[in-house]
Amino acid sequence: MNPDLGEMATYSAVLMGDIVGSEHVASTAELHARFNEVVNHHNKVNAAMLASPLTITLGDEFQGLVTSLVSAAHLAREIRHDLMAHSIDCRFAIGAVHLETPVNTEKAWNMMGPGFASTRAKLNDKRASNRYRFDVIGHPLLEIMLEASGATLTVIEQSWTDTQRSDIRALLDGSTPREIARLRNVSVHNIYKVRTSGNFALYMTQWNAINEALSTLDELFTTERTEECSMV
Questions:
Q1: Quick one: CA dihedral 122, 123, 129, 131, positive or negative?
Q2: Which pLDDT band, with edges at 50, 70 and 90, does 5 fall under?
Q3: For the whole model, what pTM was predicted?
Q4: How many domains does the chain have?
Q5: Which of 123, 146, 180, 193 has its CA 20 to 30 A from that of 57?
């Protein structure tokens, strides 16, 4: 554990994930291997945005501390898309946490503060079909709007074919329709048809709205904690 980082990091974002229907899979060993593979991959490629690494807390759940709510949402989407490529369904909960203990930079365990329990409650709410849940302290109306956008994203993602998911993931990663068409040996018009049928424009509208809201919250929470610290 790094005590200096722990003393400074009074505000953070927590990302929690839980595989849906893990008890019904044909091969638990295969599911476990793919899940660990995806989590380990993102710990490596996204280390810069992780204050505490993604840690599998149970066989089918993980949590980690991310440097911002915006980064947590981006990471949730990336992990969800990677798991979907393996036909694994996963729900996520993103929450604002006010840490009252040092950050554990080795594993996302043994940390306390407002935000952990309420985010965990969102993740464990099995009645909700929404795959992107949000918990933001003191902002209930904004939380409702974030949850609504998360529900829209979920419906769109669940409607995708494998081709739509693959092409849209490539677009999100920065590839142009022409580049995707060349790789798939199809016309550019075909890629635009996939974009349209996959509701890509609406999907991006929802993500842009979420990013704007979370960016505002990141700034607000960081300012609040800085002002509190200056008064001590």
A1: positive
A2: very low
A3: 0.90
A4: 1
A5: 146
